[in-house]
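Each record in this resource describes a single protein on a pair of labelled lines. The shape at a given residue is found from the number at the same position. The record below illustrates this layout:

***
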Amino acid sequence: MQERIRKAVFISLMVAAACLLTGAAGYTADNDTFSMERMIAELNDQLALSKEQWEKVKPVLGEKSEELKKSISEYVDKGYLQMEEMSRKLKGVSEDTEQKLTTFLNSEEMEKLKSYLDKMDEDAMREAREKLVAELADVLILTEEQLDKLRPVLEDSMSQMSRLLDGLADQGKSGWEDFKNEYKVLTDELKKKLEEMLEDQQMDRFEEYEQRQQDKIERAFA
């Protein structure tokens, strides 16, 4: 009992210290989904770690937290065509995190940690996609009703185009012509779906938005 109390006090102090170091008044779920404070609190519910273990785990979680936040910002700026690259990067960072902690955790603890990191990566990808959809919604000036109907269409299209661009990145210039043909097919399919739900002015805005995306691709790969 005393050991559990000591552990609870230690975790509370550690979270409080992290809040002070980051300038936060305190952790709330809406404040920062990928904060180190949240990761510590959530893992504390899953892992019965000693004080010594937490001292090893904390800085590594801090690195993972910063990478999650940085990646969301970076890849939202790059656009939906880079989502596959973001997914690979987050997976690599999680593997690096696991490697750094493997000597401090047993196999059961490592399995729980891996599952948790996978979930955080999925949450980060979901947030990035939601931000991209919101950005496009602003460009097209969508109503709430339009956004509700279009969200699954846009997310599916973003995923397909991202995988297509990922393949182009592997092939380089040799795959450019095939990419253009496949990209046009996907874009035409998306336009047909959008025409059923958007006004003419909104479609004009989408055409301009899509042209900017194509220009980015050509500058990068052509």
Notes: The helical segments are 2-21, 36-46, 51-78, 83-101, 107-140, 144-171, 176-195, 200-221. The chain is about 80% helix and 0% strand. Residues 107-140 form the longest helix (34 residues). Residues 1-31 have pLDDT under 50 and may be disordered.
